[in-house]
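User: Please run a holo structure prediction.
Assistant: Happy to. Please share the sequence and the ligand.
User: Here you go; the ligand is zinc ion.
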Amino acid sequence: MKRIKIILNIVLSTFLVTLSACGQNQGNIKSAQTLTGSDSSMMDKPDSFWKRTLSKEQYYILREKGTERPYTGKLLMNKDSGVYTCSACGNLLFTSDSKFDSHCGWPSFDKEIAGGRIITKEDNSLGMTRTEIMCGRCGGHLGHLFDDGPTETGLRYCVNSVSLEFIDAKSMPYGANAKDTLVLGGGCFWCIEAVFQNMKGVESVESGYSGGNVANPTYEQVCSGQTNHVEVVQVVYDRNVSSMEDILKVFFTVHDPTSVDKQGADEGYQYRSVIFYRNETQKKTAETVIAALNKEKAYDAPVVTQVEKLKTFYKAENDHQDYYANNKEKAYCRMVIQPKLDKFEKAFKHKVKE
Ligand SMILES: [Zn+2]
Protein backbone atom coordinates (compact mmCIF):
# COMPACT_ATOMS: atom_id res chain seq x y z
CA MET A 1 0.00 0.00 0.00
CA LYS A 2 2.81 2.35 1.01
CA ARG A 3 4.62 1.58 -2.24
CA ILE A 4 1.53 2.42 -4.28
CA LYS A 5 1.32 5.71 -2.42
CA ILE A 6 4.96 6.53 -3.20
CA ILE A 7 4.53 5.68 -6.89
CA LEU A 8 1.35 7.73 -6.98
CA ASN A 9 3.20 10.68 -5.41
CA ILE A 10 5.99 10.46 -7.99
CA VAL A 11 3.50 10.32 -10.86
CA LEU A 12 1.48 13.16 -9.38
CA SER A 13 4.46 15.38 -8.66
CA THR A 14 5.87 14.83 -12.16
CA PHE A 15 2.48 15.79 -13.53
CA LEU A 16 2.23 18.85 -11.31
CA VAL A 17 5.65 20.13 -12.38
CA THR A 18 4.13 20.77 -15.77
CA LEU A 19 1.38 22.69 -13.99
CA SER A 20 3.63 24.87 -11.86
CA ALA A 21 3.03 28.58 -12.06
CA CYS A 22 6.50 29.44 -13.32
CA GLY A 23 6.44 26.73 -15.93
CA GLN A 24 3.99 28.68 -18.05
CA ASN A 25 5.05 30.84 -20.91
CA GLN A 26 3.91 34.31 -20.02
CA GLY A 27 5.08 36.42 -22.96
CA ASN A 28 4.46 40.14 -23.17
CA ILE A 29 5.65 40.87 -19.65
CA LYS A 30 5.25 44.48 -18.66
CA SER A 31 7.12 46.08 -15.81
CA ALA A 32 5.40 46.05 -12.45
CA GLN A 33 3.75 49.11 -10.95
CA THR A 34 4.38 50.39 -7.48
CA LEU A 35 1.34 50.81 -5.34
CA THR A 36 1.09 52.75 -2.15
CA GLY A 37 -1.94 53.27 0.04
CA SER A 38 -4.85 50.88 0.38
CA ASP A 39 -7.65 52.59 -1.53
CA SER A 40 -6.56 51.24 -4.87
CA SER A 41 -8.54 52.00 -7.98
CA MET A 42 -10.82 49.45 -9.60
CA MET A 43 -11.29 51.58 -12.71
CA ASP A 44 -9.45 49.17 -14.99
CA LYS A 45 -11.42 46.04 -14.16
CA PRO A 46 -12.61 44.40 -17.40
CA ASP A 47 -16.28 44.02 -18.20
CA SER A 48 -16.04 40.28 -17.56
CA PHE A 49 -15.15 41.02 -13.93
CA TRP A 50 -18.33 43.06 -13.40
CA LYS A 51 -20.48 40.49 -15.22
CA ARG A 52 -19.20 37.91 -12.78
CA THR A 53 -19.40 39.91 -9.57
CA LEU A 54 -22.60 41.93 -10.01
CA SER A 55 -26.23 40.80 -10.19
CA LYS A 56 -28.07 41.44 -13.47
CA GLU A 57 -29.89 44.41 -11.95
CA GLN A 58 -26.66 45.86 -10.52
CA TYR A 59 -24.87 45.40 -13.84
CA TYR A 60 -27.66 47.18 -15.71
CA ILE A 61 -27.57 50.19 -13.40
CA LEU A 62 -23.90 50.42 -12.38
CA ARG A 63 -22.26 49.46 -15.68
CA GLU A 64 -24.90 50.27 -18.30
CA LYS A 65 -26.00 53.47 -16.55
CA GLY A 66 -29.59 52.31 -16.13
CA THR A 67 -32.15 53.79 -13.77
CA GLU A 68 -34.32 51.85 -11.34
CA ARG A 69 -38.06 52.59 -11.37
CA PRO A 70 -38.92 55.40 -8.91
CA TYR A 71 -40.34 54.43 -5.51
CA THR A 72 -39.09 50.84 -5.88
CA GLY A 73 -35.63 51.00 -4.26
CA LYS A 74 -35.06 49.15 -1.02
CA LEU A 75 -33.19 52.06 0.57
CA LEU A 76 -35.63 54.82 -0.38
CA MET A 77 -37.30 55.04 3.03
CA ASN A 78 -34.35 53.84 5.11
CA LYS A 79 -33.82 56.19 8.07
CA ASP A 80 -31.45 54.04 10.12
CA SER A 81 -28.10 55.37 11.25
CA GLY A 82 -25.07 54.15 9.30
CA VAL A 83 -23.16 54.60 6.07
CA TYR A 84 -23.88 54.00 2.39
CA THR A 85 -21.23 52.35 0.23
CA CYS A 86 -20.96 51.59 -3.49
CA SER A 87 -22.61 48.19 -3.93
CA ALA A 88 -20.03 47.23 -6.57
CA CYS A 89 -16.78 47.98 -4.73
CA GLY A 90 -17.53 49.00 -1.14
CA ASN A 91 -16.31 52.60 -1.55
CA LEU A 92 -17.76 54.84 1.17
CA LEU A 93 -20.13 57.38 -0.41
CA PHE A 94 -22.64 58.89 2.04
CA THR A 95 -23.50 58.93 5.71
CA SER A 96 -27.08 58.62 6.96
CA ASP A 97 -26.86 62.23 8.28
CA SER A 98 -26.88 63.56 4.71
CA LYS A 99 -29.97 61.59 3.59
CA PHE A 100 -33.23 63.47 3.22
CA ASP A 101 -36.68 62.77 1.79
CA SER A 102 -36.79 64.53 -1.59
CA HIS A 103 -40.09 62.93 -2.73
CA CYS A 104 -38.44 62.22 -6.10
CA GLY A 105 -38.62 58.44 -5.76
CA TRP A 106 -34.91 57.73 -5.27
CA PRO A 107 -32.68 57.91 -2.19
CA SER A 108 -31.38 61.48 -1.93
CA PHE A 109 -28.42 63.00 -0.11
CA ASP A 110 -27.34 66.62 0.32
CA LYS A 111 -23.60 65.94 0.46
CA GLU A 112 -21.12 63.17 -0.10
CA ILE A 113 -18.84 61.80 2.59
CA ALA A 114 -15.64 63.86 3.05
CA GLY A 115 -12.69 62.88 0.89
CA GLY A 116 -13.79 63.17 -2.75
CA ARG A 117 -15.08 59.66 -3.37
CA ILE A 118 -17.58 60.58 -6.08
CA ILE A 119 -16.76 61.78 -9.59
CA THR A 120 -19.06 63.75 -11.88
CA LYS A 121 -19.50 63.92 -15.63
CA GLU A 122 -21.74 65.91 -17.97
CA ASP A 123 -24.56 63.72 -19.25
CA ASN A 124 -26.35 64.85 -22.41
CA SER A 125 -28.60 61.82 -22.81
CA LEU A 126 -32.41 61.99 -23.06
CA GLY A 127 -32.25 65.47 -24.67
CA MET A 128 -31.14 67.29 -21.53
CA THR A 129 -27.97 68.29 -19.76
CA ARG A 130 -27.48 66.67 -16.37
CA THR A 131 -24.57 65.89 -14.09
CA GLU A 132 -23.94 62.19 -13.77
CA ILE A 133 -22.41 60.91 -10.52
CA MET A 134 -20.14 57.88 -10.44
CA CYS A 135 -18.20 55.98 -7.81
CA GLY A 136 -14.67 57.44 -7.71
CA ARG A 137 -13.16 54.03 -7.09
CA CYS A 138 -14.81 51.69 -9.62
CA GLY A 139 -16.53 54.14 -12.00
CA GLY A 140 -19.94 52.57 -11.30
CA HIS A 141 -22.96 54.71 -12.23
CA LEU A 142 -24.76 56.02 -9.14
CA GLY A 143 -27.32 58.53 -10.44
CA HIS A 144 -27.35 62.31 -10.96
CA LEU A 145 -26.55 65.47 -9.05
CA PHE A 146 -28.97 68.43 -9.07
CA ASP A 147 -28.67 71.92 -7.60
CA ASP A 148 -32.24 72.08 -6.27
CA GLY A 149 -31.57 70.63 -2.82
CA PRO A 150 -33.62 72.06 0.08
CA THR A 151 -30.81 72.11 2.66
CA GLU A 152 -27.92 74.58 3.10
CA THR A 153 -25.75 72.72 0.55
CA GLY A 154 -28.35 73.33 -2.18
CA LEU A 155 -27.46 69.93 -3.62
CA ARG A 156 -29.45 66.77 -4.29
CA TYR A 157 -27.51 63.59 -4.98
CA CYS A 158 -30.21 61.41 -6.55
CA VAL A 159 -28.96 57.81 -6.30
CA ASN A 160 -30.25 54.41 -7.36
CA SER A 161 -30.82 52.09 -4.40
CA VAL A 162 -29.25 49.29 -6.42
CA SER A 163 -25.95 51.23 -6.59
CA LEU A 164 -25.84 51.45 -2.81
CA GLU A 165 -25.30 49.16 0.11
CA PHE A 166 -26.33 50.27 3.57
CA ILE A 167 -24.20 49.35 6.56
CA ASP A 168 -26.00 49.78 9.86
CA ALA A 169 -23.99 51.67 12.50
CA LYS A 170 -24.84 48.91 15.00
CA SER A 171 -22.91 46.36 12.94
CA MET A 172 -19.77 48.49 12.71
CA PRO A 173 -17.51 47.93 15.72
CA TYR A 174 -14.72 49.77 13.87
CA GLY A 175 -16.92 52.65 12.76
CA ALA A 176 -16.88 53.87 9.19
CA ASN A 177 -13.09 53.74 8.94
CA ALA A 178 -12.63 49.98 9.11
CA LYS A 179 -10.51 49.32 6.08
CA ASP A 180 -7.25 47.45 6.52
CA THR A 181 -4.63 46.13 4.08
CA LEU A 182 -2.61 42.98 4.52
CA VAL A 183 0.10 41.51 2.29
CA LEU A 184 0.46 37.72 2.32
CA GLY A 185 2.68 35.19 0.56
CA GLY A 186 1.45 31.62 0.45
CA GLY A 187 2.74 30.07 -2.75
CA CYS A 188 1.52 30.97 -6.21
CA PHE A 189 -0.35 34.29 -6.04
CA TRP A 190 -2.97 33.14 -8.55
CA CYS A 191 -4.26 30.64 -5.95
CA ILE A 192 -4.38 32.95 -2.95
CA GLU A 193 -5.91 35.77 -5.00
CA ALA A 194 -8.77 33.51 -6.19
CA VAL A 195 -9.61 32.43 -2.64
CA PHE A 196 -9.66 35.91 -1.11
CA GLN A 197 -11.68 37.34 -4.00
CA ASN A 198 -14.37 34.94 -2.84
CA MET A 199 -14.29 35.95 0.83
CA LYS A 200 -16.83 38.19 2.55
CA GLY A 201 -15.43 41.52 3.72
CA VAL A 202 -12.62 41.49 1.15
CA GLU A 203 -12.91 44.56 -1.05
CA SER A 204 -9.99 44.00 -3.39
CA VAL A 205 -7.13 41.61 -3.98
CA GLU A 206 -4.07 42.40 -6.06
CA SER A 207 -1.30 40.04 -7.00
CA GLY A 208 2.22 41.38 -6.69
CA TYR A 209 5.74 41.03 -5.33
CA SER A 210 7.27 41.95 -1.96
CA GLY A 211 10.24 41.29 0.23
CA GLY A 212 12.99 41.41 -2.37
CA ASN A 213 15.74 43.81 -3.33
CA VAL A 214 14.88 44.78 -6.90
CA ALA A 215 12.55 47.71 -7.65
CA ASN A 216 9.64 47.14 -10.06
CA PRO A 217 10.45 43.48 -10.69
CA THR A 218 8.93 41.53 -13.55
CA TYR A 219 7.33 38.10 -13.18
CA GLU A 220 10.26 36.55 -15.02
CA GLN A 221 12.77 38.16 -12.64
CA VAL A 222 10.82 37.00 -9.57
CA CYS A 223 10.47 33.45 -10.94
CA SER A 224 14.21 33.31 -11.56
CA GLY A 225 14.62 33.42 -7.77
CA GLN A 226 17.31 36.11 -8.09
CA THR A 227 15.35 39.05 -6.65
CA ASN A 228 14.41 37.57 -3.24
CA HIS A 229 10.85 38.74 -3.89
CA VAL A 230 7.87 36.62 -2.94
CA GLU A 231 4.68 36.22 -4.94
CA VAL A 232 2.13 37.93 -2.69
CA VAL A 233 -1.41 39.22 -2.61
CA GLN A 234 -2.42 42.58 -1.20
CA VAL A 235 -5.81 42.12 0.45
CA VAL A 236 -7.94 45.17 1.28
CA TYR A 237 -10.71 44.16 3.66
CA ASP A 238 -13.37 45.63 5.91
CA ARG A 239 -12.70 44.75 9.54
CA ASN A 240 -16.40 45.19 10.33
CA VAL A 241 -17.08 42.13 8.19
CA SER A 242 -13.91 40.03 8.49
CA SER A 243 -11.12 40.57 11.01
CA MET A 244 -7.41 40.06 10.41
CA GLU A 245 -7.73 36.81 12.37
CA ASP A 246 -10.47 35.70 9.93
CA ILE A 247 -8.20 36.52 6.98
CA LEU A 248 -5.33 34.56 8.54
CA LYS A 249 -7.55 31.55 9.33
CA VAL A 250 -8.34 31.28 5.64
CA PHE A 251 -4.70 31.91 4.70
CA PHE A 252 -3.50 29.08 6.96
CA THR A 253 -6.11 26.70 5.54
CA VAL A 254 -5.50 27.16 1.82
CA HIS A 255 -1.72 26.83 1.86
CA ASP A 256 0.73 24.64 3.75
CA PRO A 257 2.49 26.87 6.33
CA THR A 258 4.83 24.04 7.36
CA SER A 259 6.45 23.81 3.96
CA VAL A 260 9.72 25.72 3.47
CA ASP A 261 9.92 27.63 0.15
CA LYS A 262 7.49 25.25 -1.52
CA GLN A 263 3.77 24.88 -2.22
CA GLY A 264 2.85 21.78 -4.19
CA ALA A 265 4.89 21.79 -7.39
CA ASP A 266 5.79 25.46 -7.00
CA GLU A 267 9.23 25.49 -5.49
CA GLY A 268 11.63 28.32 -4.69
CA TYR A 269 12.23 31.25 -2.33
CA GLN A 270 9.48 33.19 -4.15
CA TYR A 271 6.93 30.70 -2.78
CA ARG A 272 7.82 30.97 0.90
CA SER A 273 5.05 31.40 3.45
CA VAL A 274 5.14 34.95 4.83
CA ILE A 275 2.99 37.64 6.41
CA PHE A 276 4.21 41.18 5.65
CA TYR A 277 2.97 43.44 8.43
CA ARG A 278 2.36 47.18 8.08
CA ASN A 279 2.18 48.08 11.75
CA GLU A 280 2.69 46.70 15.25
CA THR A 281 -0.96 45.59 15.53
CA GLN A 282 -0.66 43.43 12.44
CA LYS A 283 2.68 42.05 13.66
CA LYS A 284 1.25 41.11 17.05
CA THR A 285 -1.86 39.54 15.51
CA ALA A 286 0.22 37.46 13.09
CA GLU A 287 2.55 36.25 15.85
CA THR A 288 -0.37 35.42 18.16
CA VAL A 289 -2.17 33.39 15.48
CA ILE A 290 1.01 31.44 14.61
CA ALA A 291 1.78 30.75 18.28
CA ALA A 292 -1.78 29.46 18.77
CA LEU A 293 -1.51 27.14 15.75
CA ASN A 294 1.75 25.70 17.06
CA LYS A 295 0.36 25.33 20.59
CA GLU A 296 -2.70 23.49 19.30
CA LYS A 297 -0.42 21.36 17.08
CA ALA A 298 -2.75 22.22 14.22
CA TYR A 299 -0.27 20.71 11.77
CA ASP A 300 2.02 17.70 11.95
CA ALA A 301 5.04 20.01 11.72
CA PRO A 302 5.73 23.51 13.12
CA VAL A 303 4.49 26.56 11.23
CA VAL A 304 7.40 28.12 9.31
CA THR A 305 5.51 31.22 8.14
CA GLN A 306 7.73 34.27 8.43
CA VAL A 307 6.50 37.57 9.87
CA GLU A 308 8.30 40.43 8.15
CA LYS A 309 7.91 44.19 7.95
CA LEU A 310 6.46 45.28 4.60
CA LYS A 311 8.73 47.57 2.62
CA THR A 312 7.07 47.89 -0.77
CA PHE A 313 4.28 46.10 -2.57
CA TYR A 314 4.85 46.00 -6.34
CA LYS A 315 1.70 45.27 -8.29
CA ALA A 316 2.23 42.43 -10.77
CA GLU A 317 1.58 42.70 -14.49
CA ASN A 318 -2.05 42.88 -15.62
CA ASP A 319 -2.14 39.30 -16.90
CA HIS A 320 -1.55 38.10 -13.32
CA GLN A 321 -4.56 39.98 -11.93
CA ASP A 322 -7.87 38.07 -11.71
CA TYR A 323 -5.92 35.12 -13.07
CA TYR A 324 -8.30 32.35 -12.03
CA ALA A 325 -11.39 34.21 -13.25
CA ASN A 326 -9.81 34.78 -16.64
CA ASN A 327 -8.21 31.36 -17.11
CA LYS A 328 -10.65 28.85 -15.60
CA GLU A 329 -10.16 26.37 -18.43
CA LYS A 330 -6.39 26.11 -17.93
CA ALA A 331 -5.06 22.94 -16.31
CA TYR A 332 -3.36 24.84 -13.46
CA CYS A 333 -6.66 26.50 -12.52
CA ARG A 334 -8.60 23.25 -12.62
CA MET A 335 -5.99 21.09 -10.92
CA VAL A 336 -4.41 23.42 -8.38
CA ILE A 337 -6.57 26.51 -7.79
CA GLN A 338 -10.04 24.93 -7.91
CA PRO A 339 -9.26 22.43 -5.08
CA LYS A 340 -8.09 25.36 -2.91
CA LEU A 341 -11.32 27.22 -3.62
CA ASP A 342 -13.33 24.11 -2.78
CA LYS A 343 -11.44 23.72 0.47
CA PHE A 344 -12.11 27.35 1.41
CA GLU A 345 -15.81 27.12 0.55
CA LYS A 346 -16.22 23.92 2.54
CA ALA A 347 -14.34 25.11 5.63
CA PHE A 348 -15.66 28.69 5.69
CA LYS A 349 -19.26 28.45 4.44
CA HIS A 350 -20.33 31.59 6.33
CA LYS A 351 -17.43 33.58 4.84
CA VAL A 352 -18.13 32.84 1.17
CA LYS A 353 -19.38 35.79 -0.88
CA GLU A 354 -22.92 35.35 -2.15
ZN1 LIG B 1 -17.63 51.60 -6.65
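The first helix runs from residue 2 to 17.
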